[in-house]
Integrase catalytic domain-containing protein
Amino acid sequence: RSGYSTNNSDLYNKSDKRNFLLKTNVLYKLASRGLTNIKVIHAPSKLIPEILQSHHDQSLSGHFGVERTWFLLKNKYYWSHIRTTITSYKESCEQCSKYNVDRHKPPGFLQPIEPPADVFQILGMDCYVFATASPTNTAQDTARILLEEVILVHGSPDIVITNQGTHFNNELLQSITNLIGCKHIFSTPYHPQTNGQTERWNSTFVTQLAKFCNDDHNNSDTYLPSIVYACNNGVRHSSGFTPYQLAVGRRPRHPFDPA
């Protein structure tokens, strides 16, 4: 990977020496996070490419953009001009350049659904994200996945929102929603904005998964759990938290976190 700088020559000078801590031969920076300071590793220049690679290129990181990569790094590492370095690294990523498209559209008149009061009270199917590989999209498989992957793990939601595909709009799924006592709402035909967050995720999911699949695109199920994990651990601008944090109440420890 070329085209980005990892210059980190300004380790620390006398003026900001108090913001650094040397412990067991590891240099830390005391970074301000709200009302507190946290200790983050001051990354040596030679390790920055490896850090960026593990927090952007790996399937658990998902090849996402600058903000999500920054969110993964900011509470663990510090180096000079870190955002600029992340931006340059992302712009030099061949997979991102190949698959990412401009998704900005003129603002419209969407009417968002009122946020629920409790976690998993409203389930948007098709924004903690659940995804599982299935050989078909039949009503039987859809009902089985809803039961095994969601209801039996997290309990019954009050509302399920889906599009009007036949794998959602059928007697079998209606029987399940009636059995667990939840309301099933369908998005308006040809207006996926009703379930806009899910439709947006579908588009993002296909793009991110394509970056890891082989040329024949027959190994997507291998990377599916990692992409879902990466999506659920990306900060949302609307809340300032990740879906994982809001659902579980803490940050996850990533496999590539420093010991």
The longest helix spans residues 139-154. Residues 14-99 form a domain with the Endonuclease III; domain 1 fold (CATH 1.10.340.70). The chain has nine helices and seven strands.
